[in-house]
Amino acid sequence: MNRPYFEIANPEIPKIIEGLPRGLNILDVGCGSGVHGAELKRLHDHQVVGVDLSTASIAKAKMRLSEAYVADVTKPELYPFSSSRQFDLILFSDILEHLYDPADVLARHLSWLAPGGYILISVPNIAIWNMRLSLLAGRFEYQDTGTLDRTHIRYFTRSYFMRFAQNAGLEVRRSRITPGILRPFVPWIKKMYRTAGAIDHQIDSPSIMDSGPYKFYMKWFYPLEHAVCRAWPGLLAFQFVVLSVPRALPSSKPSGAGSRKEEMEKQIA
To answer: Distance between CA atoms of 122 and 139, rounded to whole angstroms?
Structure first.
């Protein structure tokens, strides 16, 4: 669907991997226009390869990422790069909720993970406060963006997400949240931006992230909001973010991978 969309990068994705070596090779599954990969490159000098089904989004991602390909993430065996290629980290940022069988897709990507590599996942919280109030009022209405994005198929609470990760064979090493006190109002802000002409029917506009009000919020209000939401993440978190490792690592091991694995394990310890 080629509807205009405002990009907002999840600031917790670069934060959760702080301390890991710079210059990691990362596979961004469902990369969209590459907004998260661009942040990972800017902040940590990581080399990001993106895959996404949208031709329009990949056209933009190619200008931001090391590589970007139009591909179906439910069929990673058909990715247009070498099957022997491996990545230090595989990122699933707000993509699993769009899939009918997210556990299967996640499992089929493990062959692309280098020994000692990490799986980074971000999913929205269906039990956030505004959704609870909406259900109490008998409302469940899909929107163009947000928790009830009309393209969402699967939904996660905090406890279900942790159980999902465990059942998928992952061991969570770090977890963070994105705050959700003000975030539910973002769809309204996006509508106002579109009405005001801040976006000219382009795909994936960064205009909100580049705006003065957003930068002011990130500098002064985001840290406070984040601290408050950590006290009750099941109710106040907008997204759950985890850094994990497979309990059973892929068996293949390219030359020189041992030292890389040991370096990454030291950083995460």
So the answer is: 25
pTM higher than 0.90, yes or no? no
pLDDT tens figures, 92-149: 999 999 999 999 999 999 999 999 999 999 999 999 999 999 999 999 999 878 899 9
